[in-house]
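User: Fold this; tokens only.

Assistant: Input:
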Amino acid sequence: MTCEAKGNPEPEFRWTKNGQEFDPFLDPRLMKEENSGTFVIPNDGNLTEYQGTYRCYASNKLGTAISKEIEFIVPHVPKFPKETLDPLVVEEGQPFTLQCNPPKGIPPLQIYWMTINLQHIEQDERVSMGLNGDLYFSHAVEKDSRRDYCCFAAFPRIRTIVQKTAMSVIVKTTNAILERRPTLLTPSGVKSEIQLVKGEDLKLECIAEGFPTPKVEWVKMGHHLPDKAKPESHGKLLIVSAVEQEDSGKYMCKAKNTLGEVVHYFTVTVEEPPEWVSEPESQLSMIGSEVHIQCSASGTPQPTVTWKVNGVPLNGQSHLTLNNLFIAVYQCEASNRHGNLLSNANIMIMNLPPMILTNEGEDYSAVEGKGVMMHCKVFSSPPSTITWSKDDSSESVEGPRFTIHENGSLEIYSVEREDTGQYTCLVKNTEGSSAIDAMLYVKVVAPEDQQILIGTTAQLSCLAEYDKSFSNDFELLWEKDDMEIALNYTENSSQWEPGNWKELHRVPGNHNSAVLKLHGHVDYRFRVSGVNSVGRGPPSEPTERYKTPAAAPDKNPENIKIEGHLPHEMDINWEPLLPIEHNGPGLEYKVSYRRQDILEDWREHMVKRHSFVVKNTPTFVPYEIKIQAKNNQGWGPEPKIVTGYSGEDFPSAAPDDVAVEVMNSSVVKVSWARVHKDKLHGHLGGYRVIPQKQTFKSHGDKQTLTFPGDRNHATVPGLTPFSEYSLIVMTFNRRGNGPGSHPVNFKTPEGVPEKNPIFRVTDVQKHTVSLAWSQPLEPNGILTGYLLEYQLINDTEDVGPLQTVDISNPDTTKWILRDLEPVSKYKFYLRSCTTVGCGPVVSEECTTTLETSEGHWKISEALNTSKTFHIIDGLKPGTEYTVRLIANSWDKNSSIFEDVITTMSTGLASIHGGISTQGWFIGLMCAIALLTLIVLIACFVNRNKGGKYSVKEKEDLHPDVESQGMNDDTFCEYSDNDEKPLKGSQHSLSREIKAGDSGDSLVDYGDEDAQFNEDGSFIGEYAGRKEKRVSTEIKATVQTPA
């Protein structure tokens, strides 16, 4: 619960809940923040006790501000009631309705009718779902008989789907269905009244029954249907998106068939939440004066206005007049049934003499010809009058170059040297006066040193000032290193500047005089050259300097540009006249402008710079502008009128009727209704389309596509197949983007998958190759399996025939190819597939071996599924083995479990290094050999003394197992009996070990259909266990050092 406020002194906070005092600090479970009214309700227990309507109050000694009411709702998990529904028996041809009656929950609510197997109930002109979620049948047919009509209610905000008990419908067939005229299943009666808020979607529905199936038509009484009205659900639903006031009125639906018709009337009223017409403003007033606080709001129905002072109710109407003033915070609240507005206004009462907040004696510097701003910030009550004077003069500075702003600052445009001096800011009100001084220094731009590259041009300026009375004695000289230099004049330069000769006029060869058109107030020297067909001859000696008299300008500025960088301003810029075009001193420009769309007089301003900003203009309206040059001699010619627009603002409307047409799995076509030009508030730049991919947990990345120009459709490429998108369209101008349209949700169809990121050969034998891969990162649909192809290849162009293996299980990620040629190079190709087709191929190569490696598969006897482990013995030390757990019924290309193990080595003595060279080891071995020799001698002596026994009897009594030879039981032949191992396997020396505490197996799950539990969750049923034997197979390979 957030509540922040600022004030001086620091405010204190308190809360009310349902109109009663509520102190968060008394509840230890709530988390509080220092110097703040915010507190946090932790979601770790029963939240329902915190439900209610809250309001925050922030107070100090000057008053109390309040917040809007905050309603805290803790939603309950919606559930359908447990109920037993009798089958609905209906005769063929009769209408019937299946009621959903969804539980209440947080909107939006989405209703779906499906079978128990999650197949949607087909809807058409005869069968349709109403806005209330009920399923209506215009007339029953035999195929409507089924036992699994299920209504599902989805609440996306809490990610919950609940299912109603399945309903059963039994349709009794008849010999003939009687035709009948239409009647309405919904709505009831002959008329309805619909009230909705501006901006919402209007949805009107008429669902009729009858035979033949009625068709529904829509009209708006006395008007055409709105352009944005769209019939849905086979004409039974009319949707008008984002309604406006003009969409109010009387609508009629008409359902008719060959036997008659029925109508229903809808009276639609579009209402609006409150909107400020005049919002209260904080005021500073004097003691004893009246204060008027304006507060009015519009809306439908008309909002009710209530007043509070420091949070306490006060009687008042749309405006409040206060006589007995005191410092407080006044609240105005405007509300109707669609919302409310709240505004706090601070009323400060005080009489204070002016206090100047700017420091005394500030120094300001300005460059000649530039602007300067001198400040005089003041606080007073009542407000003060502010004047600026110069050099102890009693008169205020005046003129077009001087502006005193509302905050007291003095701005001087195009500063002149004469503006240097001391300025005084004087402020007065009824309580007193105050003043400060400031100094302004005007700087002249001094020549600057230059560093230039060899071969480039250096331009040195010499701007000299002198008393005009000495003009005849004035001379301009240039020196280099204290030596006077002569000027080198450029012949026919493209720029006519001092020091550049320019051809001015040509006359026939028999003329010896010419009339020249010159600029006023310019020093000239002239020279004459002869010209014939060969070229120009040498020029004559130049004349003495001749200065033309000053004259009015003979041209006006050109290339006028009108721009609007801010909504309520218009910037006017132009190319200034060249110095030679001034024709005299004192050049200024008169800027004249007026609105083009209404009749008004020209507004005029005199400026010296070549730009001007018109302030407080309406947003984006056409203006006529003209600029005329003027100097001390007079005005230039009548200027041309140019047209431009004032500043732009952001577009205020979004495109309507946004529709998406899916072209293929990654491209859609988007169309929309153009935004009206009155809503653009500027030059149309174009439209932006923003599709955003939707994921289960969050919104995905969004991309922005810009389509310039005036258009109403665009093609959006690069979408991800088999994905949900939310798309908005907005317009833009030079100022920026307008609001986005209502989001349009759509799904892209399935496409082909991306290529598999991993595909490798895991084992190569003489006749077999093992392959493994991973699923594509973007399946772009539902994987249906894989297409595996392979062929013989060699170093030349020759290749063998392409062999194909269709793998229909999408979960398979391993495969063994058999019956391959030895010592042959193969190339393998893999593609992932959906119902649309197979994606790009990924390939791998390998060469089969000459001989099968030492290892070969050994398969144990079939194991009981109740066993949880199996012991494998008879393995070689220091050898690497591959162990697999597979099902007998499988094709041995896939395994439930697979791992690689390495048995321990017996040569542990080598760890300690060369013990055979140790003395104690040699002595021990010698003692053992001597003892063995003594035992053998004793046996030999004993035998020679006549101790004999029958070898034959011994052998008959204790037959040697190894001497029995290889019988048929040693290697079992292949059999279809699950109890027998594969041919070539050996019996494992396993011991039967009692099963653990779990009898479940991956192969014991049945194939029963998944069902919805009554609370909306999916559950899987265990089917009857099928006893399946599982065997293990062992593959030994010689261990190689790492």
